[in-house]
Design brief:
- The chain starts with 14 loop residues before the first helix and ends with a helix.
- Strands 5, 6, 7, 8, 9 and 10 form a six-stranded mixed β-sheet that branches. A four-stranded parallel β-sheet has the order 2-1-3-4, with helices on both faces.
- The relative contact order is 0.12.
- It contains 14 helices and ten strands.
- By secondary structure, it is an alpha/beta fold.
- InterPro entries: ABC_Transporter_SBP (IPR050902), ABC_transptr_periplasmic_BD (IPR002491), TAT_signal (IPR006311).
- This is Iron complex transport system substrate-binding protein.
């Protein structure tokens, strides 16, 4: 973890002073001759910082992990990513911490921030690739393309994308051919003492639909607290959650002890499905495998 220091001077209302400060910070972080040397030395590959576990996965899938100089704390797969220098949580980035790693490019999603920090990084002369996260297959494609551009591995990115597109088409064809009713699935996010349930326009809503299920809750976007009333009205066949949520509860039995869950059909059958949070919600290169696995678990739960 890089040292965090007060960067309040960067938000000064005095534009000239702010620009001067950023130039000094950029020079200190990148080195006076870094950019000219990079332009002249075509053999040196760009130094990358990734801010998203799924984007980090793409870097490894492209064989560009040697170019990684930093990742955020959501970058947990593959295991080697955990040993990379960390720049903090994706929504709480520091300009000084990022620049201290001397990156040529930072690749992040529009869920990263604060925005002012990313603006400061650009002003310091570092390329910032921002990928729109809209919980679609196109999002995965955007990540592969962005990493390919930033890492100077566009040929490899096209090859990876072709393989992933084929895998995605195959899994969707298999799910589309499934017979029988679609299960009502409720996603519970419970990494803390206050569980929440997923509505629409969330990664959980999207993966449930891709895997051949129906979100048991609708009529609102984002997440809401899990209440007895919500559980009774949702009446899910299946509860879906992350393995991290189960760990936070102290195990499966402790999870089922929540009184709100007792009001659901899923409780009667103990129909609980778990997946690793990054695999389930990350929208990275493992999405086809994650959706295929989830679909199989949905069918088994209804059997």
């Amino acid at each position: 973890m890089t040292e965090q220091r007060d960067l309040s001077f960067l938000s000064s209302s005095s534009v000239p002073r702010r620009r001067d400060a950023l130039r000094l910070l950029s020079a200190a972080a990148l080195g006076a001759g870094a950019w000219p040397a990079f332009a002249q030395d075509s053999k040196r590959l760009p130094r990358l910082v990734t801010v998203s576990g799924a984007i980090t996965e793409v870097v490894y899938a492209l064989g560009a992990e040697g170019q990684l100089v930093g990742t955020d704390t959501t970058s947990l797969f593959p295991a080697a990513a955990r040993a990379t220098p960390k720049v903090g949580y994706m929504r709480q980035l520091s300009a000084e911490g990022l620049l201290s790693l001397k990156p040529d490019a930072i690749i992040a999603t529009n869920e990263s921030g604060p925005t002012v920090v990313l603006d400061q990084i650009r002003t310091a002369g570092v390329k910032v690739e921002i990928i729109e996260a809209d919980h679609s297959w196109v999002e995965v494609q955007r990540k592969v393309q962005a990493v390919g551009r930033a890492a100077a591995k566009e040929v490899q990115a096209r090859e990876l994308q072709a393989r992933l597109d084929a895998e995605w088409a195959q899994v969707l064809q298999r799910i589309g051919g499934a017979k029988g009713r679609k299960p009502k699935v409720l996603f519970v996010l419970s990494h803390s003492a206050s569980p929440q349930v997923s509505g629409e326009k969330t990664a959980a809503h999207a993966v449930i639909g891709f895997a051949g299920g129906v979100n048991a809750l609708g009529g609102f976007n984002g997440y809401r607290p899990m209440t007895a009333e919500a559980m009774a009205s949702a009446a899910p066949d299946i509860i879906l959650t992350s393995t991290q949520s189960i760990e936070a509860h102290g195990g499966v039995e402790r999870f089922w002890q929540r009184s709100e869950l007792a009001l659901t059909p899923a409780y009667k059958k103990r129909a609980l499905i778990t997946q690793d949070a990054l695999l389930l919600l990350g929208f990275g290169p493992r999405l086809p495998a994650a959706i295929g696995e989830l679909h199989d678990k949905f069918r088994a739960a209804l059997a």
